[in-house]
TrEMBL record:
Pfam families: VWA_3 (PF13768), VWA_3_C (PF18571). Residues 62-245 form the VWFA domain. The lineage of its organism: Bacteria, Bacillati, Actinomycetota, Actinomycetes, Kitasatosporales. PROSITE patterns: VWFA (PS50234). Residues 271-291 are annotated as: Disordered. InterPro entries: VWA_3_C, VWF_A, vWFA_dom_sf. SMART domains: VWA (SM00327). This is VWFA domain-containing protein. CDD domains: vWFA.
């Protein structure tokens, strides 16, 4: 079992990177906002530790593990065994005092442990009992992931905790409920708990797994070899146990006449948050970012401001971080703020200079997009279109220094000239390699500041 020392409330910081200079009449303002949470200290006095933490135990948390038990998990039989062992390893990583449950998922959702519509509280005894209960898991039935998520939501919501998190494993397509039913379940769970999703083997649908992780602000990945499940589950649980503040929102205030074109997370992965905005007052909107531990993330904010003349300047946006207080009411500020500015100049060199952070992440977002387009075109039989898109992806991966994505692309295409984006589609591609590229296409590398 992992040993965790008593954590302290992290301190948040906001840094803004931009070229604030615009030509006369210029309207588009771009900025990369880096949000960092570091351990120790306090949160500037705005949010106190008591409602975030259980005395001596760290943040109050609840975790639901959802394990696919459909019939396909028995092919090969080692897959189900690996899933049981991985879930047991994750349970063993639970910190004392964390509420948890294990769910077996088929075309229905069943409580494996503790049962009775409740959560267990992690201790040496309950971890051992959960491991014993996992021996009963067997494969049989269909797949209806929405039912798993709804049960997880009911169980997680029964605990008076700050952090609510799910871990979901599937090996097949969601064939026993409609896409609309899954979408409805995700809409119902969004904002109530975060969830990491994993696909094991190669018979699952990438877009379903990434849809789950995206909607619930978690991570998605492939575990092509079931033997790697235990290590992956343990790492996911350790990350979950490191979360200290839940439901953090990026708050954006803009002045009259300014329009928000988009807000995207761009590191450690690309995630468009634009349509997830919730209004928080006059000219103010909140964009959800989920739970935070000791980490840093980057966000690309694009604004359209009113045109102005040479020498004029304005505050284009104010960026801050907020969390909902216990018991409801107005959101509490986390004590970190950044300013986005616009200054109009006749200095052509200044107004045409592209900020390195903005340029880097614009390329990273395009990289994720063209990989998805290229793979979709390949599946549709448009080989020329796929070649062009994946060639552009190779070019962008090289320019940005995204070596991991470049290696994944090299398993799908033969690279003739990386700088020019000249490639040939491989005649034969391993399914696991193509699915790995698709699943990890949104992962980015940080810009060197």
């Amino acid at each position: 079992m992992a040993i965790f020392s008593k954590p302290t409330v992290p301190r948040f910081a906001v840094d803004v990177y931009q070229n604030e200079y615009l030509p006369e009449g210029g309207r588009e303002v771009n900025a990369v906002v880096t949000v960092s949470a570091t351990g120790g200290g306090t949160i500037g006095g705005a949010v106190g530790a008591p409602h975030l933490y259980s005395p001596g135990r760290g943040p109050a948390a609840a975790v639901a593990l959802m394990v696919d038990c459909s019939g396909s998990m028995d092919y090969p039989p080692t897959k189900m065994r690996n899933a049981r062992e991985a879930t047991a390893a994750a349970v063993d990583t639970l910190r004392d005092g964390v509420h948890f449950a294990v769910i077996g998922g088929t075309h229905v959702a069943k409580e494996v442990y503790p049962g009775g519509g409740r959560l267990a509280v992690a201790s040496e005894a309950t971890r051992a009992a959960a491991t014993y209960a996992l021996r009963r898991l067997s494969a049989g039935g269909g797949t209806a992931i929405g039912t798993w998520l709804r049960l997880a939501d009911r169980l997680l919501s029964s605990a008076d905790v700050t952090i609510r998190h799910g871990i979901l494993l599937t090996d097949g397509r969601n064939e026993h409920e409609t896409p609309e039913a899954l979408r409805s379940a995700l809409d119902g769970c969004a904002g109530r708990f975060t969830c990491d999703a994993r696909g094991v083997g190669t018979d699952w649908e990438v877009k379903e797994v990434t849809q789950i992780a995206s909607a619930l602000l978690g991570t998605a990945d492939i575990v092509a070899d079931p033997a790697g499940l235990a290590a992956d589950f343990t790492a996911m649980m350790e990350t979950a146990m490191g979360k200290e503040v839940a439901d953090v929102a990026l708050r954006l205030w803009t002045p009259v006449g300014t329009t928000v074109r988009f807000v995207k997370q761009v590191a450690p992965s690309v995630e468009d948050l634009t349509d997830r905005r919730s209004e928080a007052g006059s000219r103010t909107g909140d964009y959800p970012t989920g739970s935070w531990g000791d980490e840093s993330r980057d966000y690309h904010v694009c604004l359209e401001v009113p045109p102005a003349g040479i020498g004029q300047e304005m505050l284009a946006a104010r960026v801050s971080l907020v969390v909902p207080p216990p018991g409801g009411g107005s959101a509490e500020n986390l004590g970190a703020q950044g300013l986005v500015r616009a200054v109009w100049t006749d200095d052509v060199a200044a107004s045409t200079r592209i900020n390195p952070q903005v340029a880097h992440y614009t390329g990273q977002a395009e990289l994720a997009h063209v990989i998805q387009e290229g793979l979709d075109l390949r599946k549709a039989g448009d080989l020329d279109g796929a070649t062009a898109k994946l060639g552009r992806a190779v070019q962008l991966a090289g320019v940005s220094g995204n070596a991991d994505t470049a290696k994944l692309l090299a398993k799908v295409v033969d690279v003739v000239d990386a700088a020019a984006g000249t490639v040939r589609l491989k005649a034969k591609v391993e399914e696991a390699d193509e699915m790995t590229l698709e699943t990890r296409s949104t992962k980015t590398v940080r810009v060197k500041k």
